[in-house]
Amino acid sequence: MRGFGFTEHGGPERLGWVELPEPVPGPGEVRIRLRAAAFNRLDRFVLEGIPGVPIERPHVLGSDGAGIVDKLGEGVDDLEAGNRVLLNPGLWDGSCPACKRQEEALCRNYRIVGEHTQGTMTDLVVVPRRNVHAIPDSLGFAEAAAAPLVFQTAWRALLTVGELAAGERVAVVGAGGGVSTAAIQVARLRGAEVTVVSRSATKLDRARALGANRTLELSPGSELDKVLWAESGKQGFDLIFDSVGRESVPRTVRALARGGRLVIIGATSGPLAEIDLRTLFWRQASIRGSTMAGRAEFEGMLTELGTGRLIPVVDSRHPLERAREAFERFSSPELFGKVVVELPG
Asked: Which residues partner with 254 through β-bridges?
């Protein structure tokens, strides 16, 4: 079975077609014949190599996927071949103390499809039955593939970890990534006042169309913390959603309100940041980390996708044969939403 991925870690020059054995579902598992898959920033980190994370090679990229049920493992009797489904890329063991408390995102053995296992940029993928969900009728395969990772990440980060309440002031740093487009919508769904910050006026226009109350364009030389502080009337933001990391965190900390929360879901500009601790204790603010989501959070997010109150944002669609072009699009400064790869029916 052919897939798009790599045999050696490195940059995009390492990408190409790899061969893998056709996966066979075991007891309690489902095999999905994929119709669409989507890239995430995680794929770039997997390609480069993540310290401490052993990655099987050759390796197929992709965490998100949607398609049809192809084959059922022993004990799975509530699905039928041909059902339209999407997969939850978060994998948990179901037996650790966190899982028994129904806090699967804290599972000591938590894994992600496409990082710790083979990914979705191929014809077939096998996952546990609990990770397979019906696609809402309103979504096609491409939209269904664009949703799972980014929307569950935004949902947990804002609502569970960030404890966002209606009427609070939220700042989303960055406008074009898939997780940012999801965070804007989840925050508005909760009834928060959403401000989006970006260097792109075009992306800010699209952020307003998604529901952002206010947008801030960062001009060359402007300082993020001062721009946010002024926008808040020198009161600070109750919650700041930050996936940038080293370049932004020292400044977003200074833009927090008293009792404010900085929720970090990524570190695209680097993992190490230096902050002034005095800001935290004087304002009684906090920095919180969040990643992925548990089962109940995923199902809550999926319900809202089904109602149409949350809408997957697809930047572009590419056939599998042009997967390299799709991967390169992910690095484009014009990116807005998810890059989807479509597979033949």
From this structure: none
d(CA 178, CA 181): 5
Q: Which CATH class is domain 2-147+312-342?
A: alpha beta
- 49-107 residue pLDDT tens: 999 999 999 999 999 999 999 999 999 999 999 999 999 999 999 999 999 999 999 99
In terms of Cα–Cα distance, which of 232, 207, 234, 103 is closest to 160? 103
Cα separation, 248 vs 192, whole angstroms = 22
Answer for the pair 169, 237: CB distance below 8 angstroms, yes or no. yes
User: Within 10 Å of residue 300's Cβ, how many Cβ atoms?
Assistant: 16
Instruction: Considering the chain, tell me which residue range(s) the CATH 3.90.180.10 domain(s) occupy.
Output: 2-147+312-342
Q: Which CATH number is 152-289's, of 2.60.120.200, 3.40.50.720, 1.25.40.10, 3.40.605.10?
A: 3.40.50.720
- pTM of the predicted protein model: 0.97
Buried (b) or exposed (e) across 73-110, using 16+ Cβ within 10 A?
Answer: beebeeeeeebbbbbbbbbbeeebebbeeebbbebeeb
- Calpha distance 44→16 (Å, rounded): 14
